[in-house]
């Protein structure tokens, strides 16, 4: 039981870390945009600012996925699941099963694409000329974290009877 609690703390810490990284990436976007504005006002050039902001946006999105899933912020089929009544568990099982498979598939191909970008030394087409595998690392890490979160909630649903996602505002009747 202590091992299960330790694993739960580790997983929740990973999801929180993903959320924090996403928040830092959002602040980085703000800083890049402000720096780009200041550069324009002073007649300077900030080459690649748009590209860097895009990389930060991708990082923010992918790192936030698992955190958002864990907090019930993703669009879910709560209305349909609520209408299923006593069969809701089966609906949840189907949703988490499909989600876990798709997230795992996506994470696999994100890592594979990241590897090939590194191996082929792909460079971004923007002014920044960044090796593209560097910003792709955030996408791969976020995709893996999302897959872990889906499998975590699926396993919790199967063995504990509850997925552990905090209820969103739409579905307060099934708060856990």
List the helices and strands and how they pair.
Blueprint: H1 2-41, H2 49-70, H3 78-83, H4 88-119, H5 133-160
Mean pLDDT: 89
Helix percentage: over 70%
Distance between the termini: 21 Å
What is the percentage of strand-forming residues? under 5%
Largest sheet: none
Structural class: mainly alpha
Low-pLDDT segments: 169-176
- Count every helix, treating DSSP H or I runs of 4 or more residues as helices: 5
Estimated radius of gyration: 20 Å
Order of helices and strands: HHHHH
* Domain module tally: 1
Q: Note the overall shape.
A: elongated
The total strand number stands at: 0
Question: Can you tell me about this structure?
Answer:
This protein is mostly helical and 176 residues long. It has one domain (2-174). Helices cover 73% and strands 0% of the residues. The protein has 5 helices and no strands. The chain has helices spanning 2-41, 49-70, 78-83, 88-119, 133-160. The longest helix has 40 residues, at 2-41. It starts with a helix and ends in a 16-residue tail after the last helix. Mean pLDDT is 89; it is low at 169-176.
